[in-house]
Design a protein that fits this description.
This protein has 291 residues and is α/β, with parallel strands linked by helices. It has eleven helices and twelve strands. It has helices at 7-11, 32-40, 56-63, 84-92, 102-113, 130-133, 182-187, 242-253, 257-266, 271-278, 280-285, and strands at 4-5, 19-22, 46-50, 67-72, 96-99, 118-121, 138-141, 148-153, 157-167, 173-174, 189-199, 221-224. The strands form two sheets. Strands 1, 2, 3, 4, 5, 9, 10, 11 and 12 form a nine-stranded mixed sheet that branches. Strands 6-8-7 form a three-stranded antiparallel sheet. Helix 3 crosses helix 4 (84-92) and helix 8 (242-253) packs across helix 9 (257-266). The longest helix has 12 residues, at 102-113. The chain starts with a strand and ends in a 6-residue tail after the last helix.
């Protein structure tokens, strides 16, 4: 059965207050078409658990008033500096921040994917202040050796949003470029939604299982979204739009992100209209990065 839909239809059923795992690393492979659709429909009170290297999508969701709680290792704009809206929200305490690091996110999702209550680690947090600001990072006694170990709680999400370069109609998704651990994150989600630049024809050969990043068996919906990561990059397909990202950074730094959202998100009805507004020449020029 085909799971193909539009970005707007794919996120329509996500309720306010849902916990969302968000794929993408820095300026690459983020499900921007799905994020834009969430912002357009006015999602509220979301709890976000992004990858350890989160970027513009998280900052945009915060600016749009969609976020209530954020599990964070890092949020920034990579080569353009820190994330202004995230910083303001953290300083003003307008959203709840769950302080973590890469191990907290990675091993938390590993525990969640395995349906384990927690995972034990060596006492690597002894030299940090993280346990002081995150009471969920605790210690216990190893029943086999009697040594003290640090425990990371399981992380699970109601929905997982991820971007792939290629998917078939059943949701077998292939993620190119620098992969984090989207496959593990997806297994820790109750519902998995993929945006994909390309959807394989139903008569095309099935994807090589060795190249499938997220198996269709756990994917609920596949949003056909050409340039679905724009203005960020989709490795192997197109690069990021530096000019658009600089525009975002400059407006966000001046606390004028609403102007950016009005121009590039709210002024269009859907992802297709967004691409039409960006323009074919500009989109095709981003492919030059990979030639």
């Amino acid at each position: 059965m085909s799971k193909v839909t539009t970005p707007e239809e794919a996120v329509a059923g996500i309720p306010d207050g849902a916990t969302i795992a968000l794929g993408g690393v820095h300026s690459h492979n983020s499900p921007m078409a799905l994020v834009n659709a969430l912002i357009r429909r006015g999602a509220r009170d979301l709890e976000l658990i992004p990858t350890p290297s989160a970027g513009a999508p998280v900052d945009m969701l915060i600016a749009a008033g969609c976020v209530r709680r954020l599990h964070v290792s890092y949020v920034g704009l990579e080569f353009l500096g820190m994330a202004p809206n995230y910083r303001r929200a953290a300083e003003s305490q307008s959203i709840e921040i769950v302080e973590g690091d890469e191990a907290y996110i990675v091993y938390g999702f590993r525990a969640g994917a395995s349906r384990l209550p927690f995972l034990p680690l060596p006492p690597l947090y002894e030299g940090t202040d993280l346990p002081k600001v995150n009471p969920d990072i605790r210690t216990t006694t190893d029943p086999y050796t009697g040594r003290t170990v640090t425990t990371i709680p399981a992380l699970r999400a109601d929905y997982g949003l991820f971007h792939a370069q290629v998917s078939d109609r059943k949701g077998n998704a292939q993620i190119f470029g620098q992969r984090r651990f989207e496959d593990v994150m997806a297994k820790a989600c109750d519902h998995v939604i993929i945006s994909s630049d390309e959807i394989l024809d139903e008569h095309a050969p099935q994807p090589d299982p060795r190249l499938v990043s997220i198996p269709g068996a756990i994917v609920e919906r596949v949003a056909h979204a050409p340039y679905g990561a724009y203005p960020l990059s989709s490795p192997g397909h197109y690069g990021y739009d530096r000019e658009r990202l600089v525009e975002y950074r400059d407006l966000a730094a001046q606390d004028r992100t609403k102007e950016y959202l009005e121009t590039h998100v709210h002024s269009v009805a859907d992802h297709q209209e967004h691409l039409e507004k960006v323009g074919v020449r500009r989109l095709l020029a981003l492919q030059q990065t990979f030639r």
